[in-house]
C-alpha cells in the first residue's frame, strides 16, 4: 500500500492523555479524629506541649491554626463568640484531649525542629528520580528564616520551594507542583509554609516546616489563571489567596478542613489595576490588603462577606522632591506633582491600625479603622506622605515595631513607629536589596557600640537577599555582615559532568562558567568570559583533561579541566554562528561542534616534536540542509579509530571518514535518509546487549528506533514515552556494579521533563518513568560518572537541579506493570478482554485461512503463526495503514530478529508478536483531523473564506509524483474502492478510468470533502454510517 493510500485510509480517533501530576493530599487527614465529618477541625496545640517537653522547658511555641497556644477547649468556646469567629465563619474546636491519640500517630505531630534533617528515610528511597540539590535562588521571592538558634535554616524558591540548612549545607526540596511556584508565604511561628502556582490546574499546598511533608492541598483555587499571592492569618487559622484571572478574585480559606470551597471571597473591579500581592493584618483575622501599581485595596470580613475600599495612589506618584523625612501634605491636585515611580507595595503596621505604602523613595501612611470599609470614606487628614529616603526603596518589612527598608544602593535603614531614623547601614557595597526578613525578633536598645552614637542600636540579625540572589546575614549590633549564599542568578544553559570525579560544569548566558563539587556542595572554580557571549554548551573529554566551552559568538574555548582559570586555554573560531553542540572523541584527539549555521566543524589535536599539542581546525562542512540535532563519536568495529556521526532535522544521518580527512578537507563516508515523515531529534549508542552494534534514535513522533551502525538499516521500532513532548536528549547510564542490577538504563529529557528507561526498549510503558523537572523548559542534561545522579538546567527558571537516581524503584514499578504480554494488552482498546483484541484475533485467523487454505482442515497440528507477507494486510484490517517503507521496516524487524544468534531469517510471526508490532509501529496518538487540514494548507490554496482547497488535477499529480509515487492505475483503483464503485456485484463499474475520476471526484476538494465524501468518515454533526452526496 502506498503512502497516499495510507492517508486515504486514515482512521481519525481521539487519543487523550492527561498528565495528572497532583500532590498527594492524603496527609490532609492525618490529624482528623475517626468518625468525624469532613468539617472536623484540626487541633495542633498539643504539638506545642510535646515540643516543650522535648526541649526541657525551652520557649518553643508551635503553630496553632485553631486556637492560641495553650488555650483550653473552654477558652476556645468563649472565643467562638468573638467577632473574628462570627465574621470568618469559624467553628468551635472540639475537645483537645480527643485528638491526642490520633495526632500522636502522625509524622507531623511527632516532628520537631530537628526532624527534617535527621530523618533516616529519604525521599530517594521511594522515587526513581528525586531532587537532591537545586542551584540558584529566585530573588523575586523573599528569603525567610525557619530556624536561627542551634541551626540556621532558610526558606526560598527556585522553581521548587527549598528548605536550606546552612549549618549542615543540605537541602530539602518541597516537590509537589507541576509548574513553577508563583508565590509563597510563611506563618508567623515559622511552622507552616504555603506555596502556590499559576498552572492550568493550579493548586496551593500547605507544608509542615518541621517534617517537610504536605498537610493540605487546595486544587483549582483560581481557574484558569492560578494564584499570584498567598498569606496566612496571624493565628494561622486561615489562608488568603489572590488569583490572576481576568477578573481577579480574593478568597479566604479554612485550610484545616477538607473543604475545597473558600469561607468567603470577592471579585475585584478591574479599574483598580492588576493586584500583585496580598497580606493579612497582624494580630487580626478579618482585615487584609492587596495592591497594584495604582491602588491599595483594604478588605474587611463582615458577616462572612469580604468587602473592600480602594485607596488611590496616583496622586502620590508625582510628588515634589523633598528633604528626607519631611512630611508632604496630602495632594488633591495631581497636576502639581513631579516625582514619578513605577514601584509601589504596601504592608500593615504591626502595632497601629495603619497601612504603609512605598512609592519609590516615599512612604504613604494610611490610618485605617474597622468601620472604614463599611463607611467607604477615608479622610485626607488620616493620610501622611513622607519622602523617607534619597534612594528608591526596594524592600520593606517590620519587626517588633521597627520599620526596616532596603534601597537601590544596597543600604539598610531602621525606623521606629513614627518613621524616625534609628540606624543606617550603608558601607557594605551591596547590590539593590530584593527582600529583608529577620532571623530573630529585633529590639531597640542603647549602647556605646551604636552605629550613630546618639541613636539607639538594633539588637538582632537580619536576612538580606539582593537582586543578584546573594543572601547575607547582618548582625545589627556589631554591624558585621556574613554571606550565606553567593549570587546564583545566572541563567544556566549548559551542563557537563566530569568523567571520573564528582565535578559538574555549569555555563550561564552571562558567560560565567562554574565547576561545582556535588559531593561537598561547593564551587571549586569559576571563570567569567566577558567578550565571548553566552555559554551554549560544555563538554569534558573522556579522560577529564580538557573542558570545551561553546559560545554564542561562535568561539570555542578548550580549558584545563582541573584549572579553568589557567592562561593555557586555547581559543578556536571558525564561524560567527552560535555553537549549540560540542563533543570529544573517546581518545580525546578530535573535537566536533555544530552551529546555528547548519554546519559541522571538526578540530584535531596535532602533536609536533618539541612543542606542546595544538588544536587545529580540519574543516567546517555544511553536511545538512536543516539544523543539526545531535553529534556522536564512536569506534569502528574492526579497529579503534574514532568515527563521527551527525543527525539533522533534514532526516539525514551523516558519517564522516576521520581517518582519511585532512586539514581543509573533511570527507563524508555516507549519508542516509532514516525517516520518511518523522524528524529525528537525538541519538546514542545502544549498549552491547547483542553481537551487533546499534544506534538508538528518537524522533518527534514519539518513536525510538534501532539502526544497524554499519548498514543503517532500521532493525526495530518501539513506542517511546508519550507524556509531554518527544525526547530531545538521551544518554545511557553507566552500568551499576551491584550484581542484582543487570540491566542497562537510559536517561532522557523532553521539553520540560526528565525520565528513565529500562533497556532494552520494547514498548512496555511500565519500563519508563518521567517527571517535570523544569516547568518552563529544560535546556540540557548530563549524567554523573557513577550513574547515580543526573544534572539538568532550566531554560528560564534560573536554576540547575541535581537529581538522585534510584533504579530499584524503577525496576519495582516495571514489575508491578505485569509480565510477558500484560503491559501490551493494556495498551489495546478494552485490553485483553476488549472488542479490539477479539477483532484482531479474528483477522489473524482469517490471514491463516487465506494463506493455508484447505490444509488447515487436514489432520495436522494447526499453525499458530502467519507468514510475514500477511502482516501488512493484518495491520490494515485493524486500522493501521503503513507506508511501503514502514511495511519493509516491520518485516525486517521480524526477519532479522534472531539472525545474529542463529544465522537464519524468521519468516513467520505469531499473534502476540503481531500485537507488539502493531502497538510499537502505529502512530502514537492516531492521526487527527487538524493534521489533514494542515496538509491542505500546505499543498492547496485558500479561498477568501480562508478554507484551504486542493484542485483535482493537483491531487492526482501529487499522488503520482510525491512521497511513494503511485501509478495512474493504482490511483484509479483506490478512488473506485473508496467511492464504492468497485464491487463483485457491479461488474459494469469496473470500467473505470480518468473519465470516472472527472465524473465522481469534485474539481475542488476541501478537507471536509476529502474526509466526508471520499474517505467516508462522518463529520461531527453527521450521524455515523451516513455519507454526504458529492459536492456540486
From TrEMBL:
It comes from the Eukaryota. Its main location: other. GO terms for biological process: neutrophil differentiation; thrombocyte differentiation. Residues 58-70 have a biased composition (Polar residues). InterPro entries: EF-hand-dom_pair, Quinoprotein_ADH-like_sf, WD40/YVTN_repeat-like_dom_sf, WD40_repeat_dom_sf, WD40_rpt, WD_repeat_EMAP. It is found in: Cell projection, Cilium. Residues 47-57 have a biased composition (Basic and acidic residues). Coiled coil: none annotated. Residues 37-88 are annotated as: Disordered. GO terms for cellular component: sperm flagellum. Keywords: Cell projection, Repeat, WD repeat. PANTHER family: CILIA- AND FLAGELLA-ASSOCIATED PROTEIN 251 (PTHR13720:SF13), WD-40 REPEAT PROTEIN (PTHR13720). This is Cilia- and flagella-associated protein 251. It comes from Oryzias melastigma.
Amino acid at each position: 500500500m502506498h503512502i497516499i493510500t495510507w492517508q486515504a485510509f486514515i482512521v481519525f480517533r481521539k487519543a487523550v492523555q492527561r498528565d495528572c501530576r497532583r500532590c498527594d493530599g492524603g496527609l490532609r487527614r492525618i490529624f482528623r479524629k475517626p468518625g468525624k465529618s469532613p468539617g472536623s477541625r484540626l487541633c495542633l496545640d498539643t504539638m506545642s506541649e510535646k515540643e516543650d517537653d522535648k526541649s526541657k522547658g525551652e520557649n518553643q511555641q508551635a503553630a496553632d491554626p485553631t486556637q492560641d497556644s495553650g488555650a483550653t477547649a473552654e477558652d476556645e468556646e468563649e472565643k467562638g463568640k468573638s467577632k473574628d469567629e462570627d465574621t470568618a465563619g469559624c467553628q468551635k474546636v472540639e475537645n483537645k484531649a480527643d485528638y491526642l491519640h490520633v495526632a500522636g500517630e502522625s509524622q507531623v505531630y511527632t516532628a520537631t525542629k530537628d526532624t527534617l534533617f535527621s530523618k533516616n528515610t529519604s525521599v530517594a528511597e521511594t522515587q526513581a528520580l528525586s531532587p537532591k540539590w537545586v542551584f540558584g535562588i529566585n530573588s523575586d521571592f523573599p528569603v525567610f528564616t525557619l530556624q536561627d538558634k542551634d541551626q540556621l535554616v532558610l526558606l526560598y524558591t527556585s522553581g521548587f520551594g527549598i528548605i536550606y540548612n546552612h549549618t549542615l549545607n543540605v537541602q530539602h526540596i518541597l516537590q509537589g507542583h507541576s509548574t513553577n511556584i508563583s508565590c509563597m508565604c510563611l506563618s508567623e511561628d515559622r511552622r507552616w509554609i504555603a506555596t502556590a502556582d499559576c498552572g492550568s490546574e493550579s493548586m496551593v499546598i500547605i507544608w509542615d516546616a518541621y517534617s517537610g511533608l504536605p498537610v493540605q492541598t487546595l486544587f483549582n483555587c483560581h481557574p484558569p489563571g492560578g494564584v499570584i499571592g498567598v498569606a496566612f492569618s496571624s493565628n494561622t487559622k486561615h489562608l488568603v489567596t489572590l488569583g490572576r484571572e481576568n477578573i481577579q478574585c480574593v478568597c479566604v480559606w479554612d485550610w484545616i478542613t477538607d473543604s475545597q470551597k473558600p469561607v468567603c471571597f470577592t471579585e475585584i473591579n478591574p479599574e483598580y489595576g492588576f493586584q500583585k500581592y496580598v497580606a493579612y493584618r497582624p494580630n487580626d483575622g478579618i482585615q487584609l490588603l492587596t495592591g497594584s501599581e495604582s491602588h491599595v485595596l483594604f478588605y474587611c470580613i463582615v458577616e462572612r462577606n469580604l468587602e473592600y475600599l480602594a485607596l488611590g495612589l496616583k496622586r502620590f506618584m508625582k510628588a515634589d522632591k523633598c528633604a528626607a523625612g519631611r512630611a508632604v501634605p496630602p495632594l488633591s491636585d495631581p497636576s502639581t506633582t513631579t516625582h514619578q515611580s513605577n514601584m509601589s507595595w504596601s504592608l500593615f503596621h504591626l502595632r497601629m491600625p495603619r497601612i504603609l505604602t512605598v512609592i519609590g523613595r516615599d512612604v504613604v501612611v494610611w490610618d485605617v479603622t474597622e468601620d472604614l470599609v463599611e463607611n467607604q470614606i477615608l479622610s485626607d487628614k488620616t493620610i501622611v506622605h513622607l519622602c523617607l529616603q534619597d534612594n528608591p526603596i526596594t524592600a520593606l518589612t517590620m519587626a517588633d515595631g521597627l520599620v526596616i527598608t532596603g534601597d537601590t544602593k544596597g543600604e539598610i535603614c531602621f525606623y521606629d513607629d513614627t518613621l524616625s531614623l534609628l540606624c543606617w547601614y550603608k558601607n557594605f557595597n551591596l547590590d539593590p536589596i530584593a527582600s529583608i526578613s529577620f532571623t530573630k525578633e529585633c529590639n531597640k536598645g542603647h549602647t556605646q557600640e551604636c552605629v550613630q552614637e546618639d541613636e539607639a542600636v538594633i539588637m538582632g540579625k537580619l536576612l538580606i537577599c539582593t537582586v543578584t540572589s546573594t543572601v547575607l546575614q547582618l548582625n545589627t549590633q556589631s554591624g558585621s555582615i556574613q554571606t550565606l549564599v553567593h549570587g546564583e542568578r545566572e541563567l544556566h544553559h549548559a551542563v557537563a559532568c566530569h568523567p571520573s570525579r564528582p565535578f559538574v560544569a555549569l555555563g550561564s548566558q552571562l558567560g560565567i562558567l562554574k565547576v561545582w563539587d556535588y559531593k561537598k556542595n561547593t564551587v571549586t572554580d569559576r571563570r567569567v568570559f566577558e567578550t565571548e557571549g553566552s555559554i551554549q554548551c560544555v563538554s569534558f573529554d573522556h579522560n577529564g583533561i580538557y573542558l570545551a566551552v561553546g559560545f554564542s559568538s561562535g568561539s570555542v574555548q578548550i580549558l584545563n579541566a582541573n584549572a579553568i582559570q589557567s592562561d593555557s586555554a586555547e581559543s578556536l573560531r571558525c564561524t560567527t554562528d552560535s555553537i549549540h553542540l560540542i563533543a570529544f572523541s573517546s581518545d580525546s584527539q578530535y573535537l566536533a561542534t555544530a552551529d546555528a549555521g547548519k554546519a559541522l566543524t571538526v578540530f584535531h589535536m596535532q602533536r609536533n616534536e618539541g612543542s606542546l599539542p595544538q588544536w587545529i581546525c580540519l574543516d567546517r562542512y555544511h553536511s545538512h540542509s536543516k539544523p543539526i540535532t545531535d553529534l556522536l563519536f564512536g569506534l569502528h568495529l574492526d579497529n579503534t579509530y574514532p568515527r563521527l556521526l551527525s543527525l539533522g532535522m533534514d532526516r539525514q544521518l551523516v558519517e564522516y571518514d576521520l581517518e582519511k580527512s585532512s586539514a581543509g578537507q573533511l570527507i563524508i563516508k555516507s549519508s542516509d535518509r532514516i525517516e520518511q515523515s518523522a524528524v529525528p531529534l537525538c541519538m546514542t549508542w545502544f549498549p552491547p546487549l547483542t553481537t551487533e552494534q546499534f544506534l538508538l534514535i528518537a524522533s518527534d513522533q514519539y518513536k525510538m528506533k534501532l539502526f544497524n551502525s554499519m548498514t543503517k538499516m532500521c532493525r526495530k521500532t518501539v513506542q517511546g514515552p508519550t507524556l509531554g513532548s518527544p525526547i530531545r536528549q538521551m544518554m545511557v547510564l553507566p552500568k551499576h556494579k551491584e550484581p542484582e542490577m543487570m540491566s542497562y538504563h537510559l536517561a532522557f529529557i523532553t521539553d520540560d521533563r526528565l525520565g528513565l528507561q529500562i533497556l532494552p526498549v520494547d514498548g512496555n510503558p511500565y519500563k519508563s518513568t518521567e517527571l517535570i523537572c523544569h516547568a518552563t523548559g529544560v535546556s540540557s542534561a548530563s549524567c554523573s560518572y557513577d550513574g547515580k545522579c543526573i544534572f539538568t538546567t532550566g531554560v528560564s527558571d534560573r536554576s540547575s537541579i541535581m537529581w538522585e537516581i534510584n533504579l530499584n524503584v524503577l525496576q519495582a514499578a516495571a514489575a508491578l506493570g505485569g509480565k510477558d504480554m500484560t503491559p501490551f494488552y493494556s495498551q489495546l482498546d478494552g485490553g485483553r478482554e476488549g472488542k479490539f483484541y477479539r477483532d484482531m484475533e479474528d483477522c489473524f485467523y482469517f490471514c491463516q485461512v487465506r494463506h493455508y487454505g484447505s490444509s488447515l482442515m487436514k489432520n495436522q497440528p494447526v499453525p499458530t503463526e502467519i507468514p510475514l507477507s500477511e502482516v501488512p494486510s493484518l495491520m490494515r484490517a485493524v486500522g493501521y495503514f503503513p507506508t511501503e517503507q514502514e511495511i519493509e521496516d516491520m518485516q525486517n524487524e521480524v526477519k532479522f530478529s534472531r539472525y545474529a544468534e542463529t544465522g537464519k531469517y524468521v519468516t513467520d510471526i505469531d499473534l502476540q508478536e503481531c500485537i507488539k508490532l502493531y502497538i510499537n509501529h502505529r502512530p502514537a496518538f492516531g492521526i487527527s483531523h487538524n493534521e489533514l487540514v494542515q496538509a491542505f494548507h500546505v499543498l492547496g490554496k485558500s479561498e477568501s473564506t480562508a478554507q484551504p482547497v486542493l484542485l483535482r488535477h493537483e491531487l492526482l499529480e501529487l499522488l503520482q509524483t510525491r512521497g511513494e509515487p503511485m501509478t495512474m492505475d493504482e490511483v484509479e483503483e483506490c478512488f473506485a474502492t473508496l467511492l464504492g464503485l468497485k464491487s463483485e456485484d457491479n461488474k459494469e463499474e469496473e470500467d473505470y478510468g480518468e473519465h470516472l475520476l472527472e465524473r465522481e471526484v469534485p474539481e475542488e476538494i476541501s478537507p471536509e470533502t476529502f474526509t466526508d465524501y471520499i474517505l467516508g468518515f462522518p463529520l461531527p454533526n453527521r450521524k455515523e454510517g451516513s455519507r454526504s452526496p458529492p459536492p456540486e
